[in-house]
Amino acid sequence: LIYKEAGFYILTNCMYFITKRPNLFQRFIPGFILLLFLYFDIQSQNLEISEVRFIRKDKVTFVDAVLNDAVEITKRNTFNQDVLADDIARLERFYFDNGFFDVQIDTAVTYNYDDENVIVKFTIKENKHYRIKEVVYTGIDKISESAAKEIMKIKPIKKGDFYNRVLIIQLANGIADALQNNGYMHAREKPDSGIVIRKYDTVTTVMINFTGADTIYKFGKTVINIQKNVYGVSEDVIRKCITYKEGDIYSKEVKLASERTISRIAIVKSARVEVTSINNNVASFSANVNLNQMH
Description:
Blueprint: H1 2-20, H2 22-27, H3 29-44, E1 48-56, H4 64-70, H5 81-97, E2 104-112, E3 117-125, E4 131-138, H6 145-152, H7 165-180, E5 188-189, E6 195-199, E7 203-211, E8 218-227, H8 235-239, H9 252-263, E9 268-279, E10 282-291
Parallel strand pairs: 1-3, 4-7, 8-10
Antiparallel strand pairs: 2-3, 5-7, 6-7, 9-10
Helix pairs in contact: 1-3, 6-7
């Protein structure tokens, strides 16, 4: 009621100045527009969301339930213009990540001030659905035979598949893991250009660029570091849980297995095996162990 009275007051004064004081009204047009904007903006924040609709202009690839999960406004009870604006970007990103690089998203809001609710409409034109032309890898052309064999076991993305960002990331992560499990301790995607997409007419080339796949590291000495060892736990107990030997080819998987094995000891709260130094291609480690404290 307060909002309606405020709006009526603003509109009444606008009509008065338009009919009685037109010259003065012209001077205050920006102020009146700002007041009206603020009024409708404030009032819209208190309107309930009656319905959210997805209107397709060409084809339907995703059902409403999937799109509901992709936006934020469906998870709210009251309307918020900022959330709606952000949801346009969210939907564009969702479609982009699924191969619709040229998607067009528009919105419309129907205000029902009498019932104090709104109907939100997303208008979607998907346009072209891009397929994979090829997946190109850089930075791994000189890796070992064992690493190459592990990478060959990873399910590839085939020519003609629709672009899917999740599958691309899974592929890149799988290759990085295979490299790190075969001595390439620093192998990873390039931080500034890990995945590059080049689109053409209806197809796209995906480049996955790696760095750090040029040096094979070995496990060096491992120091046992037991924090606050009030129980007098022997270092030998922890060392027996180390699943690698000095001189073995570095493997992230084996290092993590050592952490898990140490953590299975009942008195151990947590365990981390971390690099302390690197000499040439030999990495020294520290097994840092935290114990459960007595109460």
